[in-house]
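Hi R.,

Here's the chain you asked about this morning:
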Amino acid sequence: MEEVRETGQHTREETQEGTPGVRAEPPSTRPRRRSILVAGALIACAVLAYLLAQRYGLWKRAPQASRLMAPAAIPVTTATAKRRNVGVYLEAIGTVTPLYTASITSQVNGLVIAVHYTEGQLVHKGDPLIDIDPRPFQAQVLQAQGTLDRDINVLAQAKMDLERFRAAWARNAIPRQQFEDQEKVVLQDEGQVKSDRGNLEFLQVQLGWSHITAPFTGRAGLRLVDPGNVVVLNAGNQVNATTSLVVITETQPITVVFTLAEDNLSEVRAQVHQGATLPVDAYDRALEKKIATGVLTAIDNQIDTTTGTVKLRATFDNEDDALYPNQFVNARLLVKTLRGAVTAPSQAIQHNGPVSFVYVVRDGAAHIQNVKTGPTDAGNTVVQGIAPGTVVVTSNFEKLQDGVPVTPVNPRAPAVANRTRKQ
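And here is the predicted structure, written out as tokens:
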């Protein structure tokens, strides 16, 4: 009975320490039981998630879509590599330079009485330009002519006396000294006549200078002198003779002077020494419009050491006056022509540092093909590494990769209506 009471007492004590009516557990078993509960909850969540995924097909659908969905083809424009003749050009900035430019000044003093040209007029060689009052020079010419006539008669009289003295000396009628003196008088008069002739010719030249004419065919510039101006060789308040009275420039033909790097000089000279005629095209500033076509006519005799360039001159007929003096143009010198070279459109060529490549269309996909580029002419570049007939991509490069499917979308050429003439 005592043992039973002790046991009951012990049970009541433990019940008092724990939950009323429940026997208390040992402290060492509580953490382990808590871990088991947490693990069980996680497992239950995982099983629930798996069942939901299986029911709604979330895990099956994603892999199936990745296997069945193919990448969409990229629309691109294409072109075909072809064989063609390609010109090798050297380009440089040039200046239109007339073959002849004359700043005409007066050689004599005088009053300007007439201006015969109009501004911008095309004048021909010998056409009158400016007249200076010729009357003073005409008077001087007349005076010189009179002096010459007088001295000619004096010489004639001296020659007559010489003949008389020769006949008299033959008869011993006069001393020899008198005869010899007369010979010298004749020589003196001949010298005076020559001097008079020279003075007359000089004054005639002066008279001719009063009538200024065009020295060559060209275009006159703006009028620089008017009738009523006085031309004085040295005078601060008058029209000085060193000031141009008119400027004439030859425009047909005309030349273009341009420079090339000395590294290209040997190639150009080799063609010139072989007797080749090298064409030169003159383009506008934007290199869009061809103005005229000429030929290379001269190479300067020395290289500019400050720039490492050499000057060249090309001549143009310029029959339509398309080239204007001192106009800036872009000169394209055709050095040689590559015949039968494989070319591709320049926009098809891509660059990755020093490497050049194109996208070749093969089996419905774009494939990278490395190429070596050469000269470019009219939007086509010489390439090595592809064969004629190869189709290359010319657009949408930012979307392309090696092996990506592509779809050519080249615009169709406009249809040409066939017109049948009714008989």
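One quick note: Helices lie at 2-17, 30-56, 58-68, 135-170, 176-209, 265-273.

Cheers,
M.
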